[in-house]
Amino acid sequence: MSPVDSVELAGTTAPMHATAAVTGLQCRGCGHEQPATATHLCELCFGPLEVTYDYDAIAGRVSRRRIEAGPPSLWRYADLLPVDGGDVVTLGEGFTPLVHARTLGAELGLRHLHLKNDTQNPTNSFKDRVVAMALNWALQNGFRTVACASTGNLANSLAAYAARAGLRAVIFIPANLEAPKVAATAVFGATIVPIAGSYDDVNRLCAELADDLDWGFCNINLRPYYSEGSKTLTFETAEQLGWRLPDEIVIPVASGCQFVKHRKAAAELINLGLVDARQLPRFTGAQALGCSPVASAFERGSEVVQPVRPDTIARSIAIGNPSDGADVLRIAWRTGGVVASVTEEEIVEGIELLATTEGIFTETAGGVTVAVLRKLARAGRWSGDETVAAYITGHGLKTLDAVAGRRTLGDPVQPARRDVRERLSELGLT
Ligand SMILES: *Cc1c(COP(=O)(O)O)cnc(C)c1O
Ligand SMILES: [Zn+2]
Q1: Pocket perturbation via mutation, ligand 1, pick of 96, 117, 126, 294 by most ligand atoms within 8 A of CB
Q2: Residues of the chain with CATH 3.40.50.1100
Q3: Alpha carbon distance 292, 270 (integer Å)
C-alpha cells in the first residue's frame, strides 16, 4: 500500500464553471490545464484529460452527514462529481447493495469478502453510473444528440437514459453483436448503426466522427465527465463499510477507465477526511486470458501494454487496445495489487460459483472477477482477515449463452405422482 502523501490530486482554486466545484480539465500526461469543454484530449500533447475540482470549496461543504442525508442513488455524491446534482435526469442509478459474502468467503478463506452488486443498476450494469454523468453533462451543456461506440452494456444504458431525457441517441456497434443486446437497445428507440468491423474499429471510427458532428460521444468528447461516474462505486463501498476503505479491491479491466477512477475516488475520500484511512487500498485487476493485454504486461514486469486481438466470451470487457492500460499497471504496482487473468472455463465456473454461493447471477465480466478472486485466494494471497471488495459489474441475463446448456434436465416426466417420485428417487432426493 502506498502512503497518502503519494496521492496526487490535481486541483486549482479559481472556479470558472457555474455548476459543481469543477475548475477545468487537466492533462494526465503533461499537467496542462484547460477549460471544461467537450473534449478528451490535451490541446498540447493529446494526453488524456481529468476533471479538476476546487477541493478547498468541496472540503468546506462535504461531510458524512450531508452525504447520508442525500438521495439513495449516486447523486448523494454530487459534491464530488462534474454535474450539478440539483435537477438531473435519473433512473435511480447507483447505491447498489454491498453484500457480505459469507459463503463464498468461507470457500475462499476470506472472512471479510464484500461484493458490490452493480447488477442492480437500472439497465443492469455498472455503465449506468458513467452514462448518467455523460447524459446530464450533455443535457446541461446544450447537446441534442448523444452517441457511443459499444459492445453492449453502454448501448443499453445510453439508449435508456436518452429516452428518459428526450435526447436523440445514435449507437455504433460491431455488426456481429449478439441479437439480445441489439434488442435490449433498440427497444428504447435509439438509432443503431452496425459497423462491419471489431469494437476497436468502431471506436476509432467514432473518434473521427466526433470531429465532424456536434454530438456528445460518451467515450470520446464527453469522456472526462463520463468516466468520473465510476468513482461512485468506490464512494458507496466505503460508505457501506461504515466509512472505511477495503484493504484490497478487485476490479474487471477493459479500457482500464474505471480502475483508474477507483484510485482517484479512494484518494479523494482520504484527502477530504471522509474515511479514517491513511493509505490507499491495493488495487487488483481482472482480465480474461483471451483478452489480457494488461495482465500479460504485469506478468512480464513490463510498463508497455501490447495490443491484442480479443477472443473471449467476456465480451463486455474485450478491449484489445486499452486506453488506460499503462495507468492500471502503474496503480497496481504502486499499491501492491496485481493484474491477473483466467481461462474461459474458469470464467464460467466463476459465474456458477457466485450464483451457487451467494444467489447473485453475473455476466461474464463478473465471472472473470470471481474467478480471479478464487485464483488469487488459492495461491495464498490473503491470510483471511483482510477486507476484500470485488466489483460485480453486470447481470447474468446479459450473457445467458455463457451458461445455457451447462446442465441437462433429462426427458420430461409424466404429470403423475408415481413418475415424479421415480425421478426424484433417481436424482437421489428421496
Ligand atoms: C464497461 C464495463 C467494465 C469496465 O470497463 P473499463 O473500460 O475498464 O472501465 C466492467 N464490467 C462491465 C460489465 C462493463 O460493461
Ligand atoms: Zn498534455
Answers
A1: 126
A2: 98-123+230-402, 127-226
A3: 31
The predicted model gives 117-137 an average pLDDT of: 98
CATH number assigned to the domain covering 127-226: 3.40.50.1100
Which CATH fold would you assign to the domain 98-123+230-402?
A: Rossmann fold (3.40.50)
Q: What is the tens place of the pLDDT at every residue in 65-85?
A: 999 999 999 999 999 999 988
Closest approach atom of ligand 1 to CA 253: 8
Q: In the numeric block, which cell numbers belong to residue 106?
A: 468461507
Ligand 1: which atom is nearest the Cα of residue 324? Answer: 8
Ligand 1: residues with CB < 6 A are 125-127, 153, 252-259, 316-317, 363, 365, 393-394
Neighbours of 125 (CB within 10 A): 26
Q: What is the pLDDT of residues 338-375, one digit of tens each?
A: 999 999 999 999 999 999 999 999 999 999 999 999 99
pLDDT at 15: 30
